[in-house]
Amino acid sequence: MTNLLHPLQALRDGDWFKLICGASFQNLPAIRSLTLSYALAGADCVDVAADPAVIFAVHEALQVVGRFADEARSRGFRPGSPWLMVSLNDGEDPHFRKAEFDPALCPASCLRPCEAICPAQAIAFNPRGFSGVIDSRCYGCGRCLPICPVHIIGTRSHCLTPAAIVPLVLTGVDAVEIHTQVGRLQDFTTLWRAIAPQVPQLKLIAISCPDGEGLIDYLRALYELISPLPCALVWQTDGRPMSGDIGDGATRAAVKLGQKVLAADLPGYVQLAGGTNSHTVDKLRRQGLLRESGGKKAIAELPTAAMPELYCLPC
Ligand code: SF4
Ligand code: SF4
């Protein structure tokens, strides 16, 4: 299914282009069509929830792209062979949660601001059908939480057990992204021990971490634990986790954290994550942080800024 050189070459060249569907997003039709569109557009990686149904949907879409690759090229597309990445977590994390509430508790006078603010159309009110949060569509962004006037929207977190992770990693997955936070070395170690026997089958490990006191020492400790690695390594710098913010401020946080990790000179590639938006590439370019600028230390990614608005899921 996959072409080993293409995504790896993109990392080396600094134009790694990843579709992030969201660690909790399970809307299969949307994931299928996003995968189809982004694979046709030449994406190097499709990053999805560690859910067998989601993984199956991505495989299906990639098979369609493979079947029509020649025709797509003749029509001016540049179809890629993206790696399939699943996201795992070593503890509580906003990427791994779902909103929930009991619609019976909603006052009749409420104008339903939760429904309007949800970017994934995951909140429904249907007098003859389902009302509440549509679980498969919710990706845990949290925008609905503060807007509820009677504070009835809560969240529930999820974390796969090591026993559930292993068969997933064995099922046609090319890459794993591990979400962690500073200070969780013990939890990370437990997760790593569970997946370590499968790592030789992977093409890439990504470690996603927000900033925190002692970040670089923490990342060094992780590197000590996981090395030597038989595959590529990406440090995903989560400057503004789950922000979905289109403003310049979010990009500043994303770029600043990327610079901090680049300056630490850890082995591996650096990819910006939370806080990226349509300003990010320009900012990286102005600061000489793209490979095209000739800088030795460069960010290895182009953010997925071209995603359709509805599915522009913040990472
Ligand atoms: S606003 Fe975000 S957290 Fe709330 S239901 Fe929609 S996707 Fe889920
Ligand atoms: S904002 Fe709160 S009270 Fe209003 S409809 Fe949404 S969940 Fe119910």
Helix and strand arrangement:
Blueprint: H1 5-13, E1 16-20, H2 28-40, E2 45-49, H3 52-67, H4 69-74, E3 83-89, E4 97-100, H5 113-117, E5 123-124, E6 132-133, E7 154-157, H6 162-170, E8 175-179, H7 185-195, E9 204-210, H8 215-226, E10 232-238, H9 248-263, E11 269-272, H10 280-286, E12 301-302
Parallel strand pairs: 1-2, 1-12, 2-3, 3-8, 8-9, 9-10, 10-11
Antiparallel strand pairs: 4-7, 5-6
Bound molecules: iron/sulfur cluster (SF4) (2 copies).
One iron/sulfur cluster (SF4) binds next to helix 5.
Question: Please, could you describe this protein's structure?
Answer:
With 315 residues, the chain is α/β, with parallel strands linked by helices. It has 2 domains: 5-94 and 159-311, TIM Barrel, CATH 3.20.20; 97-157, Alpha-Beta Plaits (2-Layer Sandwich), CATH 3.30.70.20. The chain is built from 10 helices and 12 strands. Strands 11-10-9-8-3-2-1-12 form an 8-stranded parallel sheet. The chain has a two-stranded antiparallel sheet with strand order 4-7. Strand 1 (16-20), helix 2 (28-40) and strand 2 form a beta-alpha-beta unit. Helix 6 packs across helix 7 and helix 7 (185-195) runs parallel beside helix 8 (215-226). It is globular, with a radius of gyration of 19 Å. The two termini are 26 Å apart. Bound molecules: iron/sulfur cluster (2 copies).
